[in-house]
Design brief:
Number of strands of chain B: 9
Number of helices of chain A: 11
Radius of gyration of chain A: 19 Å
Order of helices and strands of chain B: HHHHEEEHHEHHEHEEHHHEHHE
Structural class of chain B: alpha/beta
Largest interface: A-B, 65 and 55 residues
Largest sheet of chain A: 8 strands, mixed
Oligomer: heterodimer
Distance between the termini of chain A: 23 Å
Shape of chain A: globular
Strand content of chain A: 15-25%
Number of strands of chain A: 11
Largest sheet of chain B: 8 strands, mixed
Helix content of chain B: 40-55%
Shape of chain B: globular
Chain lengths: ~290, ~325
């Protein structure tokens, strides 16, 4: 429709080079889980899910955006926010530069607006390849601004998380981002906003213990490790070996922590379904 | 167990020397008063040297002092009519969290805090002050009650962090902490938090979303324990002292970052040297802050809390290519 064309003008098109840049070179790929060797092209076609064992490879933010948003289009916001070194922490400044160079990202989350199945959303996608997805001031600020934007524009909010936890190098400032993002969500929820939180592998510590756990609906990708404390710390504390499936999405589903484990191939369809349920304005459905 | 920390040893030795001299003088009936006065003078000087320039690592050891007063110590000294309440109504009564109703200068309040153990047995019962999800949910239940009945909330923070155990994960430690952050942000009653010892990570913050966050002079507050940071960053937990310096964990640092509003001074040598005096100064600060917050409406209190946390963080803006 003409109207749709008009609306889409405000979106910036993500250059395809940018999306593809971070995908590892090489013709073949070996699954870290089952060892199956497959063509990289095939693997990509399969949304980076192993055709042998169903292992979901980790995605960076732009790969996820390309798969999730209609036509891979994101109107990115706050893309110029960058971490500083407020504590003058040994080695932090140089590590930041190295992380930027390696990932092509400015920090561990990309935020903006886009459409999923035709429904406009505010979206945030974390990227484990930048500083293990750790949350410092920038991640906290960008997520908070995304929540505030969704609150102001009364749009649904979709956040894909992956994080090793809070960023130690910003110490207390990182910790406070947990309170900041959660307080913004408190306002969003008060207003009746819809928040769909998706856990991807892995999400731990300060991110799982703040905004990521505060969704109306909580989804996770198969096999994603989600928890507060890391496995090694827990094993040291309880002096026992933990089962292999500990903290996996399936384990957490069994313990009542998730609404649904959603394979990558079905993610967009499920998100669209949920968004559709909340977009109903009270008109009777077309009876077929 | 001796009560002095390694950096306090010169003081303890000098004190011992003075005591011995006094004792010897009394026994032999020799007048050492000039000598004693001189040593006392030296002691005072040494005291201000030792305590005046404490490093972050020394403050960390002070915050963890085994004689440092706990939440229950302060509750009995600051409040009257304390009625302790128990349990999360769902799973258990986590003894790493204590709380209930009490009166502060006659005003009913809800008080809730982390509780470390007094000895090994007590510590095992209380998981060394590290709550499981049921502990955070217990605290939340008390705070929801306060919100319902319009009572101010006072929290006392003193934990190494949330308990890192398998059953804690099974019962969703992450959600329990996150839920407290969200709910505390929404309460329409005044919330004043006091970091009395160690403020460790999410387990501390789960009681820490207040309109005012106060900190004792020798308390610490950080995203991860310096020991944990050292083992992750440098693969060596024994470098905790070094991490403590790098992580900016003292009350002074946090005041500068705008994370806390006020530092409550401690008696010379730490809170454990004079619990009653310490309790008195905490009480004064609590009362003063609650008087100020009492003037705000529920909406203003929410907005005040939002603004406080909203502004925390330091970042820059890059030129776009």
């Amino acid at each position: 429709m003409f109207k749709d064309l008009f609306q889409k003008k405000k979106y910036a098109v993500v250059p395809s080079e940018r999306t593809k840049r971070d995908i590892p070179e090489g013709l073949m790929n070996r699954c870290p889980k089952c060892g199956q060797i497959q063509l990289s092209k095939e693997l990509e076609k399969n949304l980076k899910v192993c055709s042998g064992c169903g292992h979901h490879y980790r995605l960076n933010a732009w790969e996820r955006i390309a798969m999730t948003l209609d036509e891979g289009r994101l109107f990115e916001i706050d893309e110029n926010l960058v971490s500083e070194d407020p504590l003058d922490f040994p080695g932090y400044a140089s590590k930041l530069e190295q992380q930027k160079a390696n990932s092509g990202l400015k920090d561990a989350v990309v935020t903006g607006e886009g459409e999923i199945g035709g429904f406009p959303v505010v979206i945030g996608v974390m990227s484990f390849d930048f500083f293990s997805g750790s949350m410092g001031s920038v991640v906290g600020e960008k997520v908070t601004r995304a929540i505030e934007r969704a609150t102001e524009k009364k749009l649904p909010l979709v956040l894909f998380s992956t994080s090793g936890g809070a960023r130690m190098q910003e110490s207390i400032l990182s910790l406070m981002q947990m309170a900041k993002t959660s307080a913004a969500l408190a306002k969003f929820h008060e207003q009746g906003g819809l928040f769909i939180s998706v856990f991807t592998d892995p999400t731990l510590g300060g991110v799982s213990a703040s905004f990521a756990s505060l969704g109306d609906y909580i989804l996770a990708e198969p096999g994603a490790i989600v928890g507060f404390a890391g496995r090694i710390v827990i094993e040291q504390t309880i002096r026992q070996k933990l089962p292999d499936n500990f903290q996996t999405a399936e384990f957490n589903l069994k313990h009542g922590q998730l609404d649904k484990v959603v394979p990558r191939k079905e993610m967009k369809a499920i998100l669209t379904k949920l968004l559709d349920m909340h977009a109903w304005k009270g008109e009777p459905a077309d009876v077929q | 167990m001796s009560s002095e920390l390694p950096f306090e040893r010169p003081l303890a030795e000098l004190r011992k020397k003075i005591d011995e001299l006094k004792h010897f003088g009394a026994e032999k009936q020799i007048d050492f008063s000039d000598e004693i006065a001189r040593l006392e003078e030296r002691y005072k000087q040494l005291e201000s040297e030792v305590y005046g320039g404490m490093s972050a690592a020394q403050i960390m050891h002070m915050a963890r002092h085994h004689q440092r007063p706990t939440s229950l110590d302060y509750i009995s000294l600051i409040f009257t009519d304390f009625v302790e309440l128990h349990g999360d109504r769902v799973f258990a009564d986590d003894l790493a969290i204590v709380g209930g109703l009490a009166k502060l200068n006659g005003m009913p309040v809800t008080v809730v805090g982390h509780q470390r153990g007094k000895d090994t047995k007590d510590n095992i019962q209380r998981f060394f002050g590290s709550p499981h999800p049921e502990g955070f949910r217990k605290a939340l239940r008390f705070m929801q009650q306060a919100n319902k009945f319009g009572r101010p909330i006072i929290t006392l923070i003193d934990t190494k962090g949330a308990y890192p155990g398998d059953t804690a994960e099974e019962r969703n430690q992450s959600e329990a902490i996150a839920r407290n952050l969200l709910e505390m942000a929404n309460f329409g009653v005044p919330i004043v938090c006091v970091v009395i010892g160690e403020g460790g990570s999410g387990g501390a913050l789960a009681l820490g979303v207040g309109n005012r966050v106060l900190m004792l002079e020798n308390a610490i507050y950080s995203v991860i324990s310096p020991n944990g940071a050292a083992s992750i960053l440098w693969k060596d937990a024994s470098k905790a002292d070094q991490a403590a310096e790098a992580m900016k964990i003292t009350a002074k640092d946090l005041l500068e970052f705008g994370v806390i509003e006020e530092i409550i001074p401690e008696p010379q040598g730490g809170a454990h040297r004079d619990k009653a005096a310490q309790a008195e100064s905490i009480k004064e600060a609590l009362w003063r802050n609650l008087q100020e917050l009492g003037k705000l409406s529920p909406d203003e209190l929410r907005e005040d809390r939002y603004r406080k946390f909203r502004k925390v963080g330091r970042f820059g803006t890059a030129e776009l290519e």
